[in-house]
Every structure is written in C-alpha cells, then in structure tokens.
Specification:
This protein is of the alpha/beta class. The protein has 22 helices and 22 strands.
Length: about 600
C-alpha cells in the first residue's frame, strides 16, 4: 500500500498566562496508507485535535508547532509558507468539524458553501461542482438530494448538516480527510445514520482519513488502526481489532473500562416509597403552534434519581426548565413536598428557589468567565444563607472538597480549568444552596468518557452523603441506566415509557425505546453493519387524523397498525414487568410481533 501520511517527531507548545511555552504534544510518530482510516482517541486535553490540525500545518491561537515533520505524500506541510498552505487546505487536506452548525454561514445557501472549495481551488466549474455535490448528497443518504442544496443551514437537521459538511470536505477529492468528533454532538439515533453514511462514502471512495474521537465504540466502527493519546504522548498504536481484544497499555484498558457504564452503588441512600418530593401533573406547554410538552405526569421521591431520556426535540430539557420555572407551562401543576409551585419564577419564593437547583449542560456558558471560583460559589452562599467573610470562605473550601477539587482552585477563573473541573464547579454552585432536588441537564454529554464517568461517580457519592434527589436528563440511555432508579423515555414532548431501572434490562419495550437501545454503539468491529436500528420497513398506513393526541412516534414506528395508530390516540398500557408505555400494543402484542414478524425493533 502507498503511504499517504507520515508524521515524525511532531511537537506542539502552548503559551501559558505567564508567556512561557509549555509542550502539549511530545514527539508524535505515526503514518497512514492510502485508503486507511486512523483514529486518534483520548481524553480532553490529550492532544488529539491539536495533532489533527497540525496535519494541515495549523496551530490554534496561543499554540505553535515547534518541531517534527508532517508529510502528505512527498510534501512536508510544516515547511510551507502561508500562501502555499492555502493551496493545501481544502484541496489536499480537508476538515470536518465537530459542530457543523458553527461552521456553516447562515446567510449563504448550502450549495454555495459546499461547492466553494472546488471553485477556490479551480478543480471544477460551478456547474460541474453542483453536479458532483448532488452526487455526494445522494451517496451520503441525504433527503431530496437534487434540492437540499437550495436550503439554508437552519432549514436542515443537525445530522443532515453534519453530512452536508462531509460533502463539502469531499468535493475536491482530497488526499486526506480529517473528521474531528463529527458525531459527538448528535443523538444516538442520528449518530448511527451519520456513521453509516460516512463509512459508506469513505470505503467506496477509498478515502484516507483521520478520525478524532473520545468514543472507542464509535471509532471501532470506522477505524482500521487506533492511536491512543494521553497528555500529548502516544500510549498505544495498534490495529483496531487487536486494541479492542488485547489492549497493551494500562491507560487503554482504563478507557475500555470507562466505556462500559456500571450501575452506581446506592447503598446508604434512603429513598422512601411514600416520601414524594416532586410531583408533576398534566403538564403541557405550547411554543406558538407547537405542543412541546404533552400531558406529563412525573414523581421524584426524596433521595431518588429519575432519568429522562430522549433525542433532541423530545422535550426533556423543556420539562426540566418548566420544573425550574424558567419556562411557563400552559396547563398543569407542579408540587414540591405537596405544595404548589408557581408556574413562573415571579411567583416563587427564595426558599423554593433554594430547594430546586439547575445544573446546566455547558459549564463554559453557565460560569461567569470574569469571576473567580470563590466568587462564583460565594454568590449562592450569600443569597440563600446570608454568609459573609471567613465563614463563607470556609464553606467555599468545603464545597470544593465535596466535589473532589483542591481548595487552591478558589482563586482561579473558569478559563483556567479543564472541562471536568468546570462541570464540578457547576455542580458545587448548585450544592451551595443546599437543595432538595437538582435538575442535571446533560451534565456529562460535553465531556469525554473518562471524565464523564468520574462525574457520574461524584453524583452517586453526593446522593449517598446528602440524600439529594436528581432529575437526570440525557440522550444516552446507558448513562441513565447506570445512575437512575427510574427511567422516563420522552419523544416529541410525550412520555412514551416509564419504569424502574431493572425493567429496562430486557424487552419488551416501547418501539422508540427499542430504537434508542439498539442505536447505542457496541465495542466491536462490525456492529454498525450488524445492527438493524433504524432499518425497519414501515408498514403502509392510510392518511392520519390531524390530531396532536395521536401517537407521537407514528411516522417512525415499525409496528404501527393501520386504522388504529393513525386514527385513535394510544392508551397508557401497563406491561407485566411494571413499565408503562404509550402504545396500542400490550405485552402479548409486542411479543407476538417480535417472534412471528421478526421486527428489527426486537
């Protein structure tokens, strides 16, 4: 095979606050052959994106490539001038970013942006580039490939936009494509479609690629070889099958272990059956003509953790915000210890604010970058408890210890902390109020696997120590099952399934829950080809009644029934194992369908 990429002794340094350059990549060596996919994997700060960007001769602000060589074919890109690099980027090497939404220009049509690099590099005329773009749209399984290019970025879904960015990267037939966490921000049901499209195009076109990720299960589906990084150093460089079956380095083994969520111990937790802390009754919320929450009933017992799972747009965050008073429900009731909570913030007391705290998904935007950690934690201590002076400083130190951070961090600002540390501060700020209920909104979704596992361990520890209750929101059903006593599955604003954690270990499930479970990548090669998630043939049905009360999953359900599912609102059915589902099928119906029809949801 022909060697396309050869990296030798690559070193990168970053300038700290004192103007001193600190090495962050320490002599990386690896190579790629034509048509090979190499994965760079590791925790946040391991250097994987820094190395990937160096393949284009690029270093982020505050960083500098200090040594080594990066050969793409016969050219060392680190020796090229800025002018020469502009001829390489987008032509010889192309880049697919993590956030397509941030990468696209909202004021230009999709087609104009996809063909732009071909026009800049003069590889195709506009008409030729347009024809090739449509071909790529078709290969990437995009809907309406002939016309989707006329739309603007905000008019397509996140998964479609990510595939459109792949078309943009491939339009010039580059020698190397860099995929930088391209599915990290996507739901599992969307991720599986994007992975299938990426893999199909990469294999059929013989593309040489570098795939950056922190998810070993994902790269197991995409990569021929995996390079494991930690603190800017290569720990292991092995074939994918070899690394998954017999990892050579202890750090690789720790990454593999973190990919398998285990149930967190709940010993010492005093959740009492009849001690209900939070109750939600008949909650509905409209955004204009869109019904965002549909008749939601929910209970959270004192000292318990209830998980809310669903893809983007399912209503899970809207539910949490409604409980917190950040959005006002149209109808319904929220009770805290049996006492009504006002639907809006203006009607709530300071004591009610204190008892229900919110931990936001993105600590970067939740924490004031100009305030020190001590100032951030001191504010709720003063607001809720009137603390000042030495007593407040002592409590700040205690809070840092509670979230397993050193007291020395108190003088730092958020920008000086890692992602995991910032999320711990985000949690400590909520704990400063001494709440009864914490609403955790996707608190691990932006973190790598190892750091996310540590946050889950911390939440479990705090629950044991403080007997605090959680409403834990996530799009990862494996995470939810590892930490929650009860699981609520939401789809399009409706609660489609609810049950104890133990009941989510075996079928039958609501068809949407089946899809969520089957869409979670497993850590072996070939899973992507084997799984039937999202491949079901949908039964033909007639026209549907125009009613918001019909099954929300109707358009995607592989077991829908004509003249019932499209005509009659589904009832809430109690399955034998205890789960409640919103469906026309019962235990026997689901099992008969699984056995006789061999539907892929089973």
């Amino acid at each position: 095979m022909n060697e396309i990429v050869k990296v030798q002794g690559l070193r990168v340094a970053a300038r700290n606050d004192f103007g001193v350059e600190v090495p962050i990549v320490h002599g990386a060596d690896f190579s790629l052959n034509k048509g090979e996919v190499l994965a760079l994997i590791g925790e946040s700060g391991s250097g994987k994106t820094t190395i990937a960007l160096a393949l284009m001769g690029y270093a982020r602000a505050g960083c500098r490539i200090t040594g080594g060589s990066v050969h793409i074919k016969d050219v060392d890109v680190l020796q090229l001038s800025d002018r020469q690099l502009t001829q390489v980027r987008g032509r010889t090497v192309s880049y697919i970013a993590q956030s397509a939404a941030a990468a696209f220009n909202p004021a230009k049509s999709i087609m104009d942006q996809v063909v732009e690099s071909a026009l800049i590099h003069g590889t195709l005329s506009y008409q030729q580039a347009k024809v090739k773009a449509i071909q790529l749209f078709r290969e990437l399984a995009l809907p309406d490939p002939e016309n989707i290019g006329a739309r603007y970025p905000h008019q397509v879904s996140g998964g479609q936009l990510q595939r459109l960015m792949a078309a943009m990267a491939l339009i010039t037939d580059p020698d190397l494509v860099i995929l930088d966490e391209p599915t990290t921000a996507l739901d599992v049901t969307t991720q599986i479609d994007v992975l299938r499209a990426f893999k199909k195009v990469v294999r059929e076109r013989g593309t040489t690629a570098v795939y950056v990720s922190h998810d070993l299960a994902v790269v197991a589906q995409m990569a021929d070889r995996i390079v494991v990084l930690r603190n800017g150093e290569i720990q292991e460089n092995s074939r994918t099958d070899q690394l998954l079956q017999a990892p050579a380095h202890p750090y690789t083994r720790s990454l593999l272990a973190a990919m398998k969520p285990e149930e967190r111990e709940t010993a010492g937790v005093t959740a009492i059956e009849d001690d209900v802390l939070l109750e939600v009754h008949g909650l509905e919320l409209w955004f204009g003509n869109k019904k965002a929450l549909k008749d939601i009933d929910l209970k959270v017992k004192r000292g318990a953790t209830v998980g809310v799972i669903g893809e983007s747009g399912s209503g899970k965050t809207t539910l949490a915000r409604a409980i917190a008073g950040l959005v006002e429900p149209t109808v319904g009731q929220i009770l805290l210890d049996g006492q009504p909570l006002s639907r809006s913030l203006t009607g709530r007391t300071r004591e009610q604010f204190r008892r229900v705290q919110y931990v936001f998904q993105n600590a970067d935007t939740a924490l004031n970058p100009r305030h020190s950690i001590e100032e951030i934690l001191a504010r709720p201590l003063t607001f809720y408890h009137g603390m000042k002076g030495a007593k407040r400083r002592q409590r700040v130190a205690e809070l840092l210890e509670l979230v397993q951070l050193p007291a020395s961090l108190a003088s730092r600002r958020p920008g000086e902390l890692s992602g995991g540390q910032k999320q711990r501060i985000n949690l400590a700020r909520a704990l400063a109020a001494e709440p009864d209920l914490i609403l955790c909104d996707e608190v691990t979704s932006a973190l790598d696997t190892v750091v996310g596992a540590a946050i889950l361990d911390l939440l479990a520890d705090l629950r044991r120590e403080l007997n605090v209750s959680y409403l834990f929101i996530s799009h990862d059903i494996s995470t939810v099952k590892s930490i929650c006593d009860e699981v609520v599955v939401m789809y399009d604003g409706a609660k489609v399934e609810q049950g104890a954690r133990s009941t989510f270990q075996a079928e039958p499930f609501h068809p949407y829950t089946h899809l969520l479970i089957d869409s979670v990548p497993e850590m072996y090669q070939g899973w992507l080809e084997e799984t039937q998630a999202g491949r079901a043939e949908l039964p033909l049905i007639g026209s549907s009644l125009s009613s918001p009360d019909l099954c929300p999953f109707l358009s995607r359900c592989p077991i829908r029934i004509d003249r019932k599912c499209n005509r009659v609102p589904p009832p809430r059915v109690r399955l034998a194992k205890g789960n409640e589902i919103l469906c026309h099928h019962n235990d026997l119906g689901l099992q008969n369908i699984c056995v006789s029809a061999q539907k892929v949801v089973c």
